Amino acid sequence: MATQATAQRSFSFLQIAITLQTLTIFLQAVSAGLLLTSTYGETLHSVGARVVYGASMLYVLAAVLAWKPGGGSPRPVLHASGFLALTSVQVALGIAHVPAVHLPLGVLMFGLSVLALARR
């Protein structure tokens, strides 16, 4: 009984983490638009990148917590780790100013995050 409660709580934390990640990626798209049209857009996009990175790390933590104590599948940990790797590449591409890859990768990441959210 206690294991089921732990698994349910971890599942909820995982769902919150994925939702937060999806929302922050969407807000990055908004700030990218502001980057093109306003003077403060670059600051918002830069801060947003850090928030997305933090949300990706939170997703990994939530996936590990849902897997280890509850004895569930390690698949969410692999997905979250892969997403953290994509986020790292995305940040590097943004810093290097490679929009030809940075923008499509951002769209892909949003789609993958929405897919992960829909699966929960």
Q: What would you say about this model in short?
A:
The chain has helices at 2-37, 41-67, 75-95, 99-119.
Explain what you see:
The protein has 120 residues and is an all-alpha fold. The chain has helices at 2-37, 41-67, 75-95, 99-119. Helix 3 packs antiparallel against helix 4 (99-119). The two termini are 22 Å apart. The mean pLDDT is 89.
* Biggest beta sheet attributes: none
Topology order in helix (H) and strand (E) letters: HHHH
As residue ranges, the low-confidence spans are: none
Mean pLDDT: 89
Helical run tally: 4
> What is the helix content?
over 70%
Write the layout of secondary structure elements.
Blueprint: H1 2-37, H2 41-67, H3 75-95, H4 99-119
Helix pairs in contact: 1-2, 1-4, 2-3, 3-4
Summarize this structure as a short list of keywords or feature phrases.
single chain, 120 residues, mainly alpha, 4 helices, 88% helix, 0% strand
